[in-house]
Amino acid sequence: MNIVYKIFFLLGAFLPVAQVLNGQDIEILEESEGSVTKLFAHNTTDAEIDMTFEIELTGFTSDIQGPVKKLLAPKSKVAMMTLTAPSGVECQYKSSVSYNKKRKTTPTVIPATSKDRMTSTVVDPHKINVFTQDGCGRCEFVVSYLTKNGIPFVELNTSVHKPNQDLMFSKLEEAGLNKIVCKCP
Question: For a Cys-Cys bond, which of 38, 152, 157, 184 suits 114, CB 3.0-4.6 Å?
Fold first, then answer.
């Protein structure tokens, strides 16, 4: 067996350990027996990964030609290809992996319009009071955040109850702000 081939496999044996220590999402693992080397992709994450494995061979023969595309389940190990080293031939390979993690899809929460939810006309001093206006992205964000996190609040919509706008400005004035510096979106 050629000395370069031996060094290559010695280095290859330590590669997966180095990749784990560096926190790699995908490890390329080798399992060798005689002149045959099997390559595996190991997904170390909790996410599904769509990967492409490309390899440049010198000396080896392979059961697969061209890039290998695989969908790796979380924490899975998948066979990629088998390499065979012909006797007396110096063999090595260079590989690269590109991938995309598949994000877990969660249902999109579409904020209800003011007509679909209860709004108040009275400030509650024991809760967070949120003055909202239909079509206001910032308002929808705040209402959605408070709802998702179970934080008690009172919504005072200025589109449904026009007097809420005057109430909002009076509360702002009480806090030291005036109508000139504060505008509704």
Answer: 157
State how far the Cα of 143 lies from the Cα of 154, in Å rounded to an integer.
Answer: 9
Q: Could you tell me if 27 and 95 are in contact, meaning their C-beta atoms sit under 8 angstroms apart?
A: no
For 28-62, what is each residue's pLDDT tens digit? Answer: 999 999 999 999 999 998 889 888 888 889 999 98
- pTM beyond 0.85: no
Alpha-carbon distance values, 185 to 33, 121, 143 (Å): 69, 20, 15
Fold annotation for 3-102: Immunoglobulin-like (2.60.40)
HSE of 24, CA atoms in CB hemisphere, 13 A: 18
Name 91's Cβ contacts closer than 8 Å, sequence gap at least 6. 2, 5, 8, 57, 58, 59, 60, 83, 85
**Looking at domain 106-185, which of 3.30.920, 3.40.10, 2.60.40, 3.40.30 is its CATH number?**
3.40.30
Compute the Cα dihedral for 139, 144, 145, 150 and give only its sign: positive
User: Would you kindly state where each structural domain of the chain is located, as residue ranges?
Assistant: 3-102, 106-185
Tokens found for residue 153: 């609040």
The DSSP symbol for 85 reads -
> What is the three-class DSSP state of 16?
helix
Tokens standing for residue 15: 């590669």
